[in-house]
Amino acid sequence: MRSTTSSCLLGAFRSLKIAHTPTTRPSIIPTAAAASRTIAGPQNVRLFSASASMAGNWLEPQLDRKKKMMKGRPRVPTGGSTKGTTVMWGDYGLRMTDHHRRISAHQLKIAEDTIKARLRGQKYRLYKRVCCNVGVFVSGNEIRMGKGKGGFDHWAARVAVNQIVLELRGMIHEQVVRDAFRLVGNKLPGQWEFVKKGEPPYVGITKLDGITLEELKRPRRKVSADTLHPLPPSAGPSEGNRTPLDLP
């Protein structure tokens, strides 16, 4: 019995084969053929952005909250600049139409959440054109006048008249985007309008529709006196013959 078992074990060991595997690692030194190959890339292309990115996000920048800030007023470009009044990156935009104001970060966050809820499941990209970089300091309730400016309350953004606040681009129908921006305009303070890419810009409160910027900067034309025609006299009663209304 033992001889049979030992012979079976001996036959099993003989049938085993051990394969030899190399233990050396592959060489990471580039060969001459690999070094001779060149990587083709774009020529004269800047692979980075030269504009410095602002630290933080668009709702809360990394600024010192202890530093007091003046209330200030939004800068309305009236000297010929059309910056911030047209759609730049997206296809549709939301523009303020009434007058400048200060919008808090909480209100802008609600506007962003409204767009995300309305366009859930759609393929789009939202661009923010404003940044909440103004600190608002408020004194508490029932505090006497004076004694400093107060403590930090929230971040806000100064939005000028006819300025684009939000832009959107994606594979979405125009009517769906209009409805989303309508809901946003109902939640934000002020009056808003829906604009598309390619619409004429604004200079202050003047729309450059049918008029160029050079014509707007041109001084007013002088009208000669020969082209003016006096108004004809009125046929009604004169001032001296009119009866006062307070007499019986």
TrEMBL record:
<comment type="similarity">
    <text>Belongs to the universal ribosomal protein uL16 family.</text>
</comment>
<keyword id="KW-0689">Ribosomal protein</keyword>
<dbReference type="InterPro" id="IPR047873">
    <property type="entry name" value="Ribosomal_uL16"/>
</dbReference>
<dbReference type="GO" id="GO:0005762">
    <property type="term" value="C:mitochondrial large ribosomal subunit"/>
</dbReference>
<dbReference type="GO" id="GO:0032543">
    <property type="term" value="P:mitochondrial translation"/>
</dbReference>
<feature type="region of interest" description="Disordered">
    <location>
        <begin position="221"/>
        <end position="248"/>
    </location>
</feature>
<dbReference type="InterPro" id="IPR036920">
    <property type="entry name" value="Ribosomal_uL16_sf"/>
</dbReference>
<dbReference type="GO" id="GO:0003735">
    <property type="term" value="F:structural constituent of ribosome"/>
</dbReference>
<dbReference type="InterPro" id="IPR000114">
    <property type="entry name" value="Ribosomal_uL16_bact-type"/>
</dbReference>
<dbReference type="Pfam" id="PF00252">
    <property type="entry name" value="Ribosomal_L16"/>
</dbReference>
<dbReference type="InterPro" id="IPR016180">
    <property type="entry name" value="Ribosomal_uL16_dom"/>
</dbReference>
<keyword id="KW-0687">Ribonucleoprotein</keyword>
<protein>
    <submittedName>
        <fullName>Uncharacterized protein</fullName>
    </submittedName>
</protein>
<dbReference type="InterPro" id="IPR020798">
    <property type="entry name" value="Ribosomal_uL16_CS"/>
</dbReference>
<dbReference type="GO" id="GO:0019843">
    <property type="term" value="F:rRNA binding"/>
</dbReference>
